[in-house]
Amino acid sequence: MLKYPATKYKPFQSVELVDRTWPSQTLTHPPIWLSTDLRDGNQALIEPMSVPRKLKMFQMLVKLGFKEIEVAFPSASQTDFDFVRHLIAEQLVPDDATLQVLVPARESLIRRTFESLQGARRAIVHLYNATSPVFRHAVLGLDRLGTIDLATSAATLFNQLAAEQPQTEWIFQYSPETFTATELDFAKDICDAVLDVWQPTPERKAIINLPATVEVSTPNGFADRVEWMHRHLARRDSVILSVHPHNDRGCGIAAAELAQMAGAERVEGCLFGNGERTGNVDLVTLALNLYTQGIHPGLDFSQIDAVARTVEDCTQLPIHPRHPYVGDLVFTAFSGSHQDAIKKGFAVQQPDAIWEVPYLPLDPADVGRTYESVIRVNSQSGKGGMAFLLERDYGLVLPRRLQIELSQTVQRVLDADGTELSSGDLWRLFEREYVRAISPLTYCAHHLEETEGDGQTIAASLEFFGQPLPLRGCGNGPIDAFLDALGLGLQVHRYEERSLGQGSDAAAIAIVEMGADLLSGTLHGVGIHANIVTASLMAILSAVNRAARMNPALQAKIERRFERKLLPLLNR
After folding, report:
1. Is the omega angle on the peptide bond into residue 440 within 30 degrees of 0, that is, cis?
2. What is the pLDDT of residue 417?
3. Domain 336-435 = CATH 2.30.30.100
4. 463 and 471 in contact (C-beta within 8 Å)?
5. Is 530 exposed, middle or buried, given 0-12, 13-18 or 19+ CB atoms closer than 10 A?
6. Which neighbouring-strand residues pair with 124?
7. CA distances for 184 relative to 91, 236, 265, 297, angstroms
């Protein structure tokens, strides 16, 4: 059980920053992006990537538009060392991209790291050492001065080794690891000391990276710490201020966004949030959050499914179906009220207008997703979603009252088996309920005859329970004449006709809403045929047959009516 009270833990210390400015800032441009999928993300995998998988990931990152990619921890393994050498020797790094590698403040590992970069055109070498009190006392056995000496000695060696390879354009980066658990004054002191060794200039900047190695505070607390460093760092005009948020409290995205508002110019993270423990900040979500606010992120996620499949293949980790922007279900609505709003939003959304479709913050088409999964029907769904699928996939536009009627049939099916229905399932249900409602009365043929004035006579050939049934009636049009021939006291309340599909071979669909003396309400019937008059007659019979099935009194009336008509025929 969780201990109560929770005296085992202490709250995080807030920053005294009464004049903080980040809350009033607005993001207006993307940060410098650094992908650490091949380093931080890779070291967190159960089975680290092989060289072919690392190469596949690297090539995808380049294609997406990343200009800075942390590719390895070359002193940690021969695989990582060889991968860096392969990228350089085979000239696989584009001219506008920069490799980054990571190394701790240890002389032998630093020398090995610079060795791996021989021949590189440009490289970022990322130095780190742990700086928080628990690491200084429990792990390293160093005080503040000893910790600073460790970092500055390593920084001095950076200068020496870089001078030995003048053909490479070197960029140095320093991270006070466990920054979020380090005293702010000490974090500043050690960063300033490293910068004093490197002597960056506004034309040749160094990178100071502030990692939330473990996320231990709310995002606003992280933003306060970043703004404090942004204000107090020496040589600020010669520094690119970077952040490396983790997601231990589930706030990595918010922490990264607020940190940029607080002065950070660069963000390190992984695609879809891979990384140690709960992962690094998710660069895809960060980028598309900007995009949905009208800011192009400078990264191309227009084919997000392909990116997801590549990441899953390289990492051997699944992406959650509810993951922002990329999960299989994130553009899907099951709820009836959501579906109705989405359907209406799509109906009024203009191609070149500002995107304003309810419940969809991003147009799925912008990331290469189709609209096929936007609305799906289950037991929580309503008429709007059902109508949307039938219209989208079959060109079937249902009147609202028919939507309500059909949804009741759909709901009975869903309540019975609890499964999800596809648009194909819905179409088959619609056909079964309306188009194939052909008993007891089945249409066979008809012939129209003109009469004096505006009237019309119809001679219809039907079947009644399989027996031929000729009928004849008169009216002011085919439908009125057919109702007269049936002689059941039926009334057509609403009638719609339209084409189903496109082109000269498109079928006509007729939809009628009918009432009868023995019915308490109305019922719909549907007919589909190449000839619109035939479709209309079939729609009337659809409604009659459905009414007969649901109303025993009407069923009896129909049987009495047509059995009397059949008797003379049967006695011939």
Report:
1. yes
2. 73
3. no
4. no
5. exposed
6. 100, 171
7. 42, 16, 19, 31
Tell me the domain boundaries of the chain: 22-315, 336-435, 441-570
Contact 526, 509 (CB under 8 A): yes
Encoded tokens for 446 = 């008809």
Helix (H) or strand (E) holding 500, with range, is: strand 490-500
138 CB-side CA count, 13 A: 4
Residue matched to tokens 């650094």: 34
**Cβ-based burial of 43 (10 A; exposed 0-12, middle 13-18, buried ≥19):** middle
Task: Please give the pLDDT value at position 282.
Answer: 98
User: Helices 400-417 and 383-394 meet at what angle, rounded to 10?
Assistant: 100
Which pLDDT belongs to residue 572? 46
The mean pLDDT values, 10 residues at a time, for the chain of 572 residues are 81 89 97 97 92 95 98 95 96 97 98 98 98 92 96 98 98 96 97 98 98 95 98 97 97 98 98 96 98 97 93 92 88 75 88 91 89 57 70 84 81 75 86 91 92 84 91 91 92 86 75 83 90 95 92 87 67 46
* 441-570 is a CATH 3.30.70.260 domain: no
Q: Which helix (H) or strand (E) holds 344?
A: helix 336-348
CA 256 to chain CA centroid, Å, is: 20
For domain 22-315, give the CATH superfamily: Aldolase class I (3.20.20.70)
Of 234, 306, 344, nearest to 64 (Cα)?
306
